[in-house]
């Protein structure tokens, strides 16, 4: 039911006659003290593409980014920037400053003794002074910081410093931008604004970007493609829509938000749940199936005038979350099954405790996976 997309290897791309990607990781592996933290990763970035490395803490995102930057030597595998081999076993290891990549991290680390304009000009070595300044000012303008060109970094807020750091990383027109959680130290509202501005600048400049984040919402906002990692491996690569709507495995569903979970056995191509019988025609008879139901998939309709009893689905609690409300519901199925589930509904709908309800499912947000075969 779900797709599993692996990036083509560099040789596949050459054989297919495709133009060279901006960045290509070819079977990259990295070990620390005998433990593999990055395992045979294939990943490519096209010009102008924003790819997010997404995954839980410790899954190897930063290590992979550092390998692309030249800050970490891989145990095996190759790294290409454009058509240039920049890292390979047996000696090739082009240093970070010669890779034509722009780097920005969680903390901005600007030079404190240089003004904002001087900071941004610092990395541009090839242009005469006037053109350098004009390019730096253009980037500061795009990131909303032109007014601060002549001040020193310590007079700026964290968010402003981060904007300057992004301008500095972009100033030498790098082939690839490598960003490691660059927005995570900012408060929510500022983060949204800087994310938005950054995305527009990256797209306008057509810069291939690899962005590390553990935040699925950030990845969906920023990415053309997401590579979701777990334990040093890529579990699924695809557009945000592909990962959200066509997840390869339960881990992918769970990573994008809390879900309701139920386990059932397939009989006659169906599986019984407290929300009714679901189509399970793709599964073997007797298969044990995990059913993952997004809270957004549950449509709740009040049964006016009906008093809830032991066999009627009813509301246990309602909480307003802002744009949405979260309803805790006790669902009763036709086969006598019972389930506590969460439903996310538009924020204006806040039924009272004990309200009898009928429940329907949006099946595009319900995912079935084989758990183990029932014998
Ligand atoms: N220099 C190192 N020496 C030894 N172990 C390391 C080193 N760098 C990273 N690791 C280990 O490699 C694993 C992956 O770390 P990495 O920082 O790449 O993960 P991550 O997905 O970026 O995590 P986070 O989101 O928390 O930053 C972790 O277990 C980490 O402890």
From TrEMBL:
Domain ABC transporter residue range list: 23-256
GO MF term list: ABC-type ferric iron transporter activity; ATP binding; ATP hydrolysis activity
InterPro entries in alphabetical order: AAA+_ATPase, ABC_SmlMolc_Importer, ABC_transporter-like_ATP-bd, ABC_transporter-like_CS, ABC_transpr_FbpC, Mo/tungstate-bd_C_term_dom, NA-bd_OB-fold, P-loop_NTPase
Pfam family, one: ABC_tran
A cellular component annotation (GO) from this entry: membrane
GO aspect biological process, one term: quaternary ammonium group transport
Keywords: ATP-binding, Cell membrane, Ion transport, Iron, Iron transport, Membrane, Nucleotide-binding, Transport
The protein's name in its UniProt record: Ferric iron ABC transporter, ATP-binding protein
Native source species: Marinobacter excellens LAMA 842
């Amino acid at each position: 039911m779900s797709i599993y997309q692996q990036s083509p290897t560099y040789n596949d791309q050459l054989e297919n006659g495709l133009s060279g990607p901006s960045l290509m990781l070819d079977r990259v592996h990295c070990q620390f003290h005998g433990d593999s933290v990055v395992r045979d990763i294939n990943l490519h970035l096209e010009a102008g593409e924003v790819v997010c490395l997404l995954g839980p803490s410790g899954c190897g995102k930063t290590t992979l980014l550092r390998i692309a930057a030249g800050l970490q030597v891989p145990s095996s595998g190759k790294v290409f920037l454009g058509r240039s081999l920049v890292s390979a076993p047996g000696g090739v290891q082009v240093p970070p400053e010669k890779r034509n990549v722009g780097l920005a991290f969680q903390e901005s680390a600007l030079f404190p003794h240089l003004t904002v304009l001087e900071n941004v000009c610092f990395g541009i070595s090839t242009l005469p002074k006037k053109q350098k300044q004009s390019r730096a000012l253009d980037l500061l303008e795009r990131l909303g910081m032109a007014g601060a060109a002549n001040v020193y970094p310590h007079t700026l807020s964290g968010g402003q410093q981060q904007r300057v750091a992004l301008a500095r990383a972009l100033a030498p027109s790098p082939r690839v931008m490598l960003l490691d959680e660059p927005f995570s130290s900012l408060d929510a509202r500022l983060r949204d604004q800087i994310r938005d501005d950054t995305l527009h600048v990256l797209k306008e400049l057509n810069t291939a970007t690899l962005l590390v984040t553990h935040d699925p919402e950030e990845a969906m906002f920023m990415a053309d493609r997401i590579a979701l990692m777990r334990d040093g491996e890529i579990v699924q690569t695809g557009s945000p829509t592909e990962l959200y709507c066509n997840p390869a495995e339960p881990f992918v569903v769970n990573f994008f938000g809390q879900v309701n979970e139920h386990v059932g056995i397939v009989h006659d191509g169906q599986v019984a749940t407290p929300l009714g019988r679901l189509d399970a025609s793709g599964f073997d008879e007797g298969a044990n199936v995990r059913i993952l139901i997004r809270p957004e998939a549950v449509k709740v309709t009040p049964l006016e005038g009906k008093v809830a009893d032991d066999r009627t689905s009813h509301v246990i609690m309602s909480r307003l979350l802002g744009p949405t409300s979260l309803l805790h519901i006790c669902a009763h199925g036709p086969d006598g099954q019972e389930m506590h589930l969460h439903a996310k509904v538009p924020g204006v709908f806040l039924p009272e405790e004990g309200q009898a309800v009928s429940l329907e499912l949006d099946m595009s947000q319900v995912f079935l996976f084989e758990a183990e075969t029932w014998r």
